[in-house]
Design brief:
By secondary structure, this protein is α/β, with parallel strands linked by helices. The protein has five helices and four strands, in the order βαβαβαβαα. Strands 2-1-3-4 form a four-stranded parallel β-sheet, with helices on both faces. α1 packs across α4, α2 packs parallel to α3 and α4 runs antiparallel to α5.
């Protein structure tokens, strides 16, 4: 099983999850977490709590706004402290199609590499140039 974590500066994580659910009609499960990035202590506590729910074969899929945002840096520190770095992968620049695919396929596609390819393709499909 994978834990899906949406994280970014300010309200990025919760807003992205809410938008995705409203647009797609999908539902988040108990292994989906949207963390506000405006409070360092809350990020640390939430990440630590999520790490407590990770079992032997579980992994973490983190979709964030920017890989080196302050919120992501705080999450990384907890993951490093809890020895979870090797059990996670991150996609930065997440958008609604990417999150929708993550909700649909996070537990259906076993390979992290294959899942990342699907998520990246879906994310790219949501990019639309206008006025060019």
């Amino acid at each position: 099983m994978r834990k899906l974590i949406l994280l970014g500066e300010g309200s990025f994580g919760p807003a992205l999850l809410d938008s995705t659910l409203a647009i797609t009609g999908l539902e988040a499960d108990e292994d989906t977490f949207a963390i506000p990035g405006d409070n360092v202590d809350r990020i640390r506590q939430t990440m630590d709590s999520i790490c407590n729910t990770v079992h032997n074969k579980d992994s973490l899929l983190i979709l964030c706004d920017a890989a080196m945002s302050k919120a992501m840096q705080e999450a990384w520190l907890i993951l490093e402290k809890r020895h979870m770095i090797e059990r996670m992968f991150i996609i930065a620049g997440a958008n609604v199609p990417c999150v929708g695919a993550a909700l649909r396929y996070k537990d259906q596609i076993a390979s992290d590499g294959e899942l990342s390819q699907v998520l990246l393709a879906e994310g790219r499909s949501g990019l639309t140039p206008i006025g060019i």
